[in-house]
């Protein structure tokens, strides 16, 4: 299946963001932004529905935590299933992404303004 | 840092979530996100007044967020049912209103309606109900003003010649039954939403209440006119034996009075009700 050849990027980023420590939604979004030097932004419209979906799938678990002086926040962490999924998805990504890049770069890469491959 | 805009946003963003509890949790989660973002923005130099609005802008379109929540549950049949239930219930209300045009069926149809809404099957969240109500009635408020005017004209039907008597009679009774049911439905949904949602009453509720009240007052005036100035084409007595006619007439008058007084009080209370956004409760896992 070509349309499932790569793991979902937002899902992979969320899994990776939680690999080393638990975070709340805002921290996940900022982590992705900072780790990519501002190139990648995980839009909140994507992030929260995805977090809830992944939680239903058993990849994440959550708990409401109240830190001093702040509103309670919902913190997420990986479940063992989520950790397995991160490993699997990352492995697929590492194997397939270079192949995709190879395909896109075939015969010189992107066409020029006249549609010619240079 | 809470602002009224945030609450409108949170309600809209969670309108597609069927579970009240889940919707409340998501609202709290998004609120926490907004606060963190606004605080960071202030550290970046945004003023205290501008940071909340900018945080809201960066969070994105509430409708897109709501759509994403819906699509993330697209395989969940219960959710799909719950989302459409609100819209289908509006259609069901219309059908029941038609059936309810028979005077003696009005109490039964109202009872069936509320059983259907509150006890049968999976339920849409109160936020969903309220969103449907607000979108339906606020978007088409002119329609409801016009409905009130038409209702008043129906109420004065004894003026009309006997040849057109039966049809407006049924339409007016249908409007009364439907108006009564919808008004109660909206009031209860708003009340429950205020308790379990973000704690805010809808400004549109007063418009709805007043629109319905206008319609019912019109019919009430017609009843009063008729009581003062009896007409040989007495529409009640044409249908029922005299005693039943009087009884039904009494029921209708009491019913009209309850709805009229109730709607007026509700509209008044809503006007006075504190509109400051309430802080969502702490959600215990």
Automatic annotation (TrEMBL), chain A:
Residues 14-87 form the Transcription regulator PadR N-terminal domain. It holds the Pfam family PadR. It comes from the Bacteria. InterPro entries: Metal_resp_DNA-bind_regulator, Tscrpt_reg_PadR_N, WH-like_DNA-bd_sf, WH_DNA-bd_sf. Signal peptide: none annotated. PANTHER family: PADR-FAMILY TRANSCRIPTIONAL REGULATOR, TRANSCRIPTIONAL REGULATOR RV3488. This is PadR family transcriptional regulator. It comes from Sulfobacillus benefaciens.
UniProtKB/TrEMBL annotation, chain B:
The keyword ATP-binding does not apply. InterPro entries: Perm_prefix_1. The chain crosses the membrane at residues 79-98, 104-121, 141-160, 172-191, 203-226, 246-270. It comes from the Bacteria. Keywords: Membrane, Transmembrane, Transmembrane helix. This is Uncharacterized protein. It comes from Sulfobacillus benefaciens.
């Amino acid at each position: 299946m070509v349309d499932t050849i790569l793991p979902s990027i937002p899902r992979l980023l969320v899994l990776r963001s939680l690999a080393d420590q638990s975070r709340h939604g805002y921290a996940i979004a900022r982590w992705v932004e900072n780790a990519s030097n501002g190139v990648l932004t995980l839009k909140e419209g994507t992030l929260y529905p995805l977090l809830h979906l992944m939680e239903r799938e058993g990849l994440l678990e959550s708990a409401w935590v109240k830190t001093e002086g702040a509103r309670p926040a919902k913190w997420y962490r990986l479940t063992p299933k989520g950790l397995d999924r991160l490993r699997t998805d990352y492995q697929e990504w590492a194997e397939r992404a270079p192949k995709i890049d190879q395909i896109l770069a075939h015969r010189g890469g992107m066409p020029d303004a006249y549609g010619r491959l240079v | 840092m809470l602002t009224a805009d945030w609450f409108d946003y949170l309600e809209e963003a969670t309108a597609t979530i069927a579970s009240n509890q889940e919707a409340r949790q998501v609202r709290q989660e998004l609120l926490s996100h907004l606060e963190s973002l606004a605080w960071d923005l202030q550290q970046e130099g945004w003023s205290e007044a501008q940071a909340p609005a900018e945080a809201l802008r960066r969070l994105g379109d509430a409708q897109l967020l709501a759509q994403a929540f819906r699509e993330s549950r697209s395989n969940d049949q219960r959710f799909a049912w719950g989302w459409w239930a609100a819209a289908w219930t509006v259609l069901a209300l219309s059908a029941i209103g038609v059936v309810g045009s028979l005077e003696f069926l009005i109490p039964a149809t109202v009872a069936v309606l509320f059983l259907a809404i509150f006890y049968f099957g999976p339920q849409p969240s109160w936020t969903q109900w309220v969103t449907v109500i607000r979108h339906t009635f606020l978007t088409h408020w002119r329609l409801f003003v016009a409905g009130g005017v038409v209702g008043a004209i129906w109420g004065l039907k004894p003026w009309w010649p006997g040849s057109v008597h039966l049809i407006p009679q049924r339409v007016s009774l249908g409007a009364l039954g439907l108006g009564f049911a919808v008004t109660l439905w909206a009031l209860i949904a708003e009340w429950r939403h205020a308790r379990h949602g973000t704690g805010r009453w809808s400004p549109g509720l007063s418009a709805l209440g007043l629109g319905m009240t206008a319609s019912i007052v019109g019919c009430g005036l017609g009843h009063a006119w008729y009581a003062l100035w009896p007409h040989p084409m007495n529409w009640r007595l044409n249908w029922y034996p005299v005693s039943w006619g009087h009884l039904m007439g009494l029921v209708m008058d009491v019913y009209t009075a309850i709805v009229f007084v109730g709607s007026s009080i509700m509209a008044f209370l809503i006007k006075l009700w504190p509109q400051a956004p309430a802080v969502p409760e702490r959600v215990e896992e």
